[in-house]
Amino acid sequence: MVGVDAVVIGRNEGARLLACLASLRGQVRRLVYVDSGSTDGSVEAARATGASVVVLDLATPFTAARARNAGLALLGADPPEFVQMVDGDCVVDPGWIAAALTGFAAHPGAVVVCGRRRERFPGRSVYNALADREWDTPVGPAQACGGDAMMRYGAVQAVGCYRADLIAGEEPELCLRLRVAGGEIWRLDAEMTLHDAAMTRFSQWWRRTVRAGHAYAEGARLHRAAGHWVRETRRCLIWGFGLPVVILAAVAVTPWSGLLALLYPAQVVRLAPRLGWVGAGYAVLGKFAEAQGAAGFYLAALRGARRRIIEYR
After folding, report:
1. How confident is the model over 79-109, as pLDDT tens digits?
2. What DSSP letter does each residue of 243-301 carry, written as one string?
3. DSSP letters for 7-62
4. Is 161 strand, coil or helix?
5. Distances in Å between the alpha carbon of 33 and those of 21, 70, 222, 267?
6. Per-residue pLDDT tens for 238-295?
7. What global pTM score does this model have?
8. Which of 103, 132, 168, 299 could cross-link to 122 by cystine, CB 3.0-4.6 Å?
9. Interstrand relation of 82-87 and 149-152 (parallel, antiparallel or unpaired)
10. H/E segment holding residue 233
11. Distance between CA atoms of residues 223 and 241, nearest Å
């Protein structure tokens, strides 16, 4: 489709990548795949499909943001009006490109539109089901998008593209800058992508949640004045770190202070009507993982270091 190109990023996605590229074939003008150090033949497989391939230099630490920028840069010689950003573990719905363009026509101020991302196999594990719920955000004006979204190429270039050094949370950070520049983000009532989280183990879910905590802390530090993820950072540090420390200190004085730990099940009860019992339980437990991620960011910052990507697969 003239005027719409696509950038796909991935690392060792295997069959998921081939399905992703196949879902875009015939829907976009140009298809770019950016590889972040795959060892499973993804580069050769992508080239065989006819996609333009960018292989990131191993000398510089990988980030999804850096990969997205590399794909956008390749399109710069003949820039499109719109670019569809896609994670390599997703399949694009056959009707999405047309729906996204209709969305842009209906919302002239929009610089980003996104639709419904669903988990391909939500029934395989509670962790996949939790991810599917996470993707189910309200339709209408939005604050941010995820990894899959259609964007106005010129608007993204005008704000400097993604922040390449972020290891997580690069999409909401970009959307914040786009909104500050006057652009709108819209979530449409349309099927967009099927995502394959492939989370079957608790450790995977934990690491993914640690990554979220890192993103909250770094985002809040970058854009505290705008309130970006400040509340999320404060909440995870209180529930995942501050309150446990207070409880342990109080128990040392009087064992009855251990009753303060009942605040956690009480929080589960409070959240259950909105999230369900399982979702509420993991939301509360997740605050400990988020606090770990936030603390890791702050400790690295104190050392003047940057953390490498936090992978969960």
Report:
1. 999 999 999 999 999 999 999 999 999 999 9
2. HHHHHHHHHHH-GGGGGGGGHHHHHHHHHHHHHHHHHHHHHHHHHHHHHHHHHHHHHHH
3. EEEESS-THHHHHHHHHHTTTSS-EEEEESS--SSHHHHHHHTT-EEEE--TTS--
4. coil
5. 8, 10, 29, 43
6. 999 999 999 999 988 888 888 999 999 999 999 999 999 999 999 999 999 999 999 9
7. 0.94
8. 132
9. antiparallel
10. helix 230-237
11. 23
Q: Are 223 and 236 in contact (CB under 8 A)?
A: no
CA gap 31, 80 in Å, rounded: 12
Give the distance from CA 43 to its chain's centroid: 23
Q: Map out the domains of the chain with their CATH numbers.
A: 4-200 (3.90.550.10), 203-302 (no CATH)
Closest by Cα among 70, 69, 119 to 91: 119
Q: Which tokens sit at 204?
A: 């995977």
Identity of the amino acid at 165? D
Q: Is the pLDDT of residue 1 over 50?
A: no
Q: Write the DSSP string, 53-112.
A: EEE--TTS---HHHHHHHHHHHGGGS--SEEEEEETTEEE-TTHHHHHHHHHHH-TTEEE
CA torsion angle 167 172 178 183 (round to 10): 160
Q: In b/e form, how buried is each residue of 293-310, taking b as 16+ CB within 10 angstroms?
A: bbbbbeeeeeeeeebebb
